[in-house]
Amino acid sequence: MKVLLVFAHPERHSLNGALRDVAVAELEARGHEVRVSDLYAEGWKASVDRADFPEMAEDERLRVAGASGRAFTAGALTEDVKAEQEKLLWADTLILQFPLWWYSMPAILKGWVDRVYAFGFAYGVGERSDTHWGDRFGEGTLAGKRAMLIVTVGGWATHYAPRGVNGPIEDILFPINHGVLYYPGYTVLPPFVAYRVDRMDEGGFRQVADQLRERMRSIETTEPIPYRMQNGGDYQVPSLELRPELGDPGASGFALHVDRMRVGLIQL
């Protein structure tokens, strides 16, 4: 298996960096080929601006989606973006690794998504009609590939439990799992989350490292999060609202988009 790990932490000699080494070593020990995109070390440009579309006329108004689509079709995206797109096409599995900052990913990783997920590559693909609203949410360029998150969190696990003050970790990570990974077609695995990392001692690290090794050993067989496919019949077109007879009675929000009937023994 070919794995791309996109690493977004500014300090290589951090607990996050140590977990990256654990993940890469275990994957390679299992015979997988691994590439790492270290965004901070590589000085990744995070913001989208006119410099991303060098063939634009100086007096042209920047409309990012349109400019992105034209540049992608013409092969005129910047070289750093094209290199990351090639890695995504090469990889069977994508891992995004980052610390949870202000309930989301670091800005540099969001900027990686903004720039690499070009129109025509990760979105704006497929037929769009009265019965088919494009190839997305289970379909798309990256369909057939797996993806998962490795996330470090400063707070306790109970703080991110269903009744925790921060809200369930599944809800916090939903925009990334469902919106960034599932949208362009990835099959999304449950995330690996390490808690209380700011207070972790050597014994705690060994325990978390062992758990991460186990996740890397089972990465090819782990049951994915059973998100509903947009074009699989669960959603009404063109409103794209879940059919009224589906979902748990009284349920709302993110949970509606997980098909609980397909949940096996996995821990979401």
Automatic annotation (TrEMBL):
GO molecular function, one term: NAD(P)H dehydrogenase (quinone) activity
Recorded GO CC terms: cytosol
Keyword Oxidoreductase in annotation: yes
Annotated Pfam families: Flavodoxin_2 (PF02525)
Highest taxon in the source lineage: Bacteria
Keyword Oxidoreductase assigned: yes
Keywords associated with the record: Oxidoreductase
InterPro entries the UniProt entry points to: Flavodoxin_fold, Flavoprotein-like_sf, NAD(P)H_dehydrogenase_qn
Domain Flavodoxin-like fold: 1-214
Family statement drawn from the similarity comment of this UniProt entry: Belongs to the NAD(P)H dehydrogenase (quinone) family.
The protein, known as: NAD(P)H-dependent oxidoreductase
